[in-house]
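Recall from the previous lesson that a structure prediction takes nothing but the amino acid sequence as input. Here we apply that procedure to PspA/IM30 family protein from Paenibacillus mangrovi. The sequence below is the only information supplied.
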Amino acid sequence: MGILSRFKDVMKVNINSLMERAEDPEKTIDEYMRSLNSDLGKVKAETASLLTNERRAKTALDECSAEIKKLMRYAEKSVEAGNEDDARKFLERKAQLAGKLSELQAAYDQASSNAATMKQMQDKLVSDIGQLEARRLGLKGKMTFAKMQQSLNSGSSSSGKVSSSFSAMEERVNQALNEAEALAELRAGKNEDDLDELIAQLEKDSNKEQD
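The prediction returns the following tokens.
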């Protein structure tokens, strides 16, 4: 449960705020990406374990509930048959299982809550990793453009077409960065079908702008 105890720390991380405070954005991204990927691996392993526990708890709860219902039916049939002693035994056993049922319900509720919490952490980590990947992509693109600009400034600066092309390329990279960040932010709350539709729409909008 070590990674589960860090739920609040994981959930309160704000990538935008983290990057604004970074003195060396590239180094910060690389270091935090390693940390997030390590946490994600632990979360996935823990999630699998918790889901197994949840299924086991649900099975035990359902079996106990079914047994109680069965004992109640037996007691009713015994009464109808005039076997009050047998009916009493069935009801006593039912009362014993009622206490166990409460314990099993509490165990299932806890297991279900832990699994849901871990799933929420997994979604948050996937979103944060996506945002950092988008940031790294944008940072590398801007560094490339900066080198291109330096090269232009040190050489012939008479080509207006080259400058215009540079600006257009930079605008496209910034647009790609914004779209990637938007996908990362939505990833945690979207299922795969929703993401496929979102990606298709973003690609459609991007193609229209390029035309």
